[in-house]
Amino acid sequence: MSDSDDNANNLPDGQIENGHVPADSRSDRARDRRSENGQECDQFDIDLPTSHRYLGKLDNVTGYAFYDDGEITTLAAIQTNTLVFPGFTLPLVLNNDLEINMLQRHTQKKNAFVLLTPNKNFKGIFPFGVIMEIFETHLRNDVLYLKARSRQRCRLIPGKEIKTLIGELYQVTVKVMLEPPITSPIYNTQLNSLKIHRMYKCTEYREFCKCRKYRQYHLSQYPLAGWVYDKHEMCFLLDQLIRGLSSYYLIEFVPDDPVQLSYWFVQNFQLRHEERLKIMVLGTAVERLRLELKYLNMKRLICCANCDAEIAQQNDVFPMSKDGVQSNYCNPGGYVYETVTVSEATNFNLVGPPSAQFSWFPGYSWTIMQCKMCSSHLGWKFSSVSLKPDSFYGLAKSGFDVKIVDEGSDNL
Ligand SMILES: [Zn+2]
Question: What pLDDT sits at residue 11?
Fold first, then answer.
């Protein structure tokens, strides 16, 4: 085990680690199973972090009932600095007796709560949130451990009071937002006899290209060129986004379902908080993918939130969890850290000895990382003597800012 940063760069050249594609060798999938001292190493199992084993054994909870589109419901709510899109998991640790009792009382019947996030200035509550399903929970030594999965997006009802129950626990009334079906922008102008061919509804870009000739006949009645309409088609956006993401991730890690991809992007791509909020309010996957494609073309750097020192490059992010490069983890004090995993980092110092206690990545020890320039907390270095990769860095979202260094070209 190493607590120095000497081992930071010892990923063998040409190696793909858990879905990250090194810029210099995107086709070589060979994996070196030996560490520097010749010892056999196993590849880390990226399913492990999503199980949040550091919370101990929890009991399964069932009984979440899906809400209908537009349904209005009153639920308990928790505010954290993190944002979780549908399909992703949030671990929580509650130490306060009164908060535990209150949450248990309010989630007994519905088994759900609303996760609220701060607005773009971090000075109030953002009017959109997500309904979380509690799927595992356990009370041990007066501490409540729970895991919740984001299920549906919702919006706070304007004018309705956000009632404080206790501490960071609230009661809110929300309106549920469901995904509308995916259709083509010209679908409603298509003859019914042609609709059976589904040529304007296809989500496969290859299929879409096959229908291009018939589509051009149809589009000739409209004033704008055909490519203008093409750029609003789901399959076009999907194809472009997946192509762009293939520079950073192995393609099998990127979902090809449009709705899932639109959420996966927010969890995995390095976005500013305000950019994520902009995506959150958009009602359809088409709108979200369009904006995400624009964000994808911007060049970004990960910098210290306090002094702007460069900490990592966008190409350095790689997933150590099945959820992707960015996941939420909880410390014993109950603080939720949204953490981005990177293979390389710069401008930091390590503080204190490594520890394996409550480690979010089983088999790895963590050491605190501070900014070299201003000593702000940046995250942790994780190191292992028996696993590959033998070291990586978990950067806490609260410790860094995403700086846009090139706005890119907006070709949409
Ligand atoms: Zn700094």
Answer: 28
